[in-house]
Amino acid sequence: MAYNYPPEKLSVYLSDDGGSILTYYGMWEASLFAKHWLPFCKRYNIEPRSPAAYFSQSDGHQELCTPKEWSLIKDMFDEMTERIDTAVMSGKVPEEIKARQKGFHEWNQEITSKNHQPIVQILIDGKDQNAVISNSPIIMNVDCDMYSNNNDAVRDALCFFLDEEMGHKIGFVQYPQNYNNLSKNDIYGNSLQVINEVEMGGMDSLGGPLYIGTGCFHRREILCGRKFTKDYQEDWNAGIKDKLQESIDETEEKAKSLAACTYEHGTQWGDEIGVKYGCAVEDVITGLAIHCRGWESVYNNPKKPAFMGVGPTTLAQTILQHKRWSEGNLSIFLSKYNVFLFGHGKTKLRHQMGYHIYGLWAPNSLATLYYVIIPSLALLKGTPLFPEITSPWIAPFVYVFCVKNMYSLYEALSSGDTLKGWWNGQRMWLVKRITSYLFGVLDNLRKLLGLSKMNFVVSPKVSDEDESKRYEQEIMEFGSSDPEYVIIGTITLLNLVCLLGGLSKVMKVGWNNIHLDALFPQLILCGMVVITSIPFYEAMFLRKDKGRIPFPVTLASIGFVMLALLPAIV
């Protein structure tokens, strides 16, 4: 609401599918604070205009305003935050607050997060019924854990739509997804720097970036299924036509029937119209459908990020998020929306290939599992799998290994990552492939066999104080007995045993007798896995804090390693 844009042209909707009275209470408190905060923002042109972000970054009033005025607005924000936190901790809204606002009367003892009637309340500008239901030609959506970091983001996006030469071709403008809570070296590889700076920028030149579900400006008409035509012209006055004649109460009741979504039953909503349903990454498939209707998209990545959000800060959160992403993208690849089929003749081949970078994330787990298991077992047994190091046939393997790592390092450093951050990213590349992506494959297989259905799991972004402290110290977080940790423990221990066993065999038998040049590539591969896995060995055997790998996980991993070694030993 504090954007550098005429407020009468902005309509803000906040939705909570769970129907929480605490969410509504937070909205109500924010609406009261907004009456003081918005004039303060406009008067002094402050940045960022999210109060929580602003006060966490600001050292004081400095040259913006008088100390008294700054302290007054800061105290109002702190008091509001304290009231909301108190209500959340107690799990209920104070009775005196409920009596002051009619919206709280919508809740009763029978309402649950999964079973409640549509609840619609107008908190700001409720005196103008024409401001209640908007028919504006542009829709922006942002995730609940993100805030605006640039008050000119709306104007910047509209510049693309209003471009005289290319604007009529643009279906949506996508901003990158940036996080403000990640450490400098990004121990879990969640910064998305390379994706934001390299991959999405590359997609922009192929026909447009993916729709990533947040920080995006859409034309309303394309969400309603409109196909691109060369003579298309946007009616920028459409949003102010057909003024409503009903009262606020009548409009509110009509909005409740709209929120119930019963009008969608038996229609093309969720298929041909609106956001696609039935997929864990509904944003990607929605953007694909828009591209296949002839529209292009634009990637806008300003130096000052338009939006900032909260990224995963534990290993469990990271694995869960990438499992959902990889599972959803693979489900698109295996469905009728496969880009090569659905986009044939509608989008360029190179654009289709860009989409498949993400569609094939999950299947890459199978090749990775092979390379971190089979060569190591063969090393222990003394069986060479690669050409000898002196053979010219080793050149393709050396080329791929060197160029891949050199280029990924160049991409990371040029995108703003540190050298240590790149190394952490290589470790997480391995972890995600043997856990998140593997489970993405297995879940898709179960769905194809009819054993399960698509299940959307929201990625938690909240960590306790101890977890946050370990994250700041760049210590990896485990602490639970999840099956993903058993896989990680098994793979890392297997490679350690095979490396030590292979080296001991070389030392006993002799360098010449065991043909070291034939086993050297496997020694390098196994050694790389071991070196990147040092934090996992520490978590299993050295650490004593609550974030270490639990002993049952270590014990199970040792058991699986012993089973895997039986064929190699025999």
Automatic annotation (TrEMBL):
Residue ranges crossing the lipid bilayer per the database entry: 355-373, 485-507, 519-537, 549-569
Entry GO CC: endomembrane system; membrane
Subcellular location: Endomembrane system
GO molecular function terms attached to this record: cellulose synthase (UDP-forming) activity
Active site: D17, D283
Membrane topology annotation: Multi-pass membrane protein
Keywords: Cell wall biogenesis/degradation, Glycosyltransferase, Membrane, Transferase, Transmembrane, Transmembrane helix
Positions of UDP-alpha-D-glucose binding: D17
UniProt record, GO biological process: cell wall organization; cellulose biosynthetic process; plant-type cell wall organization or biogenesis
Organism superkingdom: Eukaryota
Protein name: Cellulose synthase-like protein E6
Native source organism of the sequence: Triticum turgidum subsp. durum
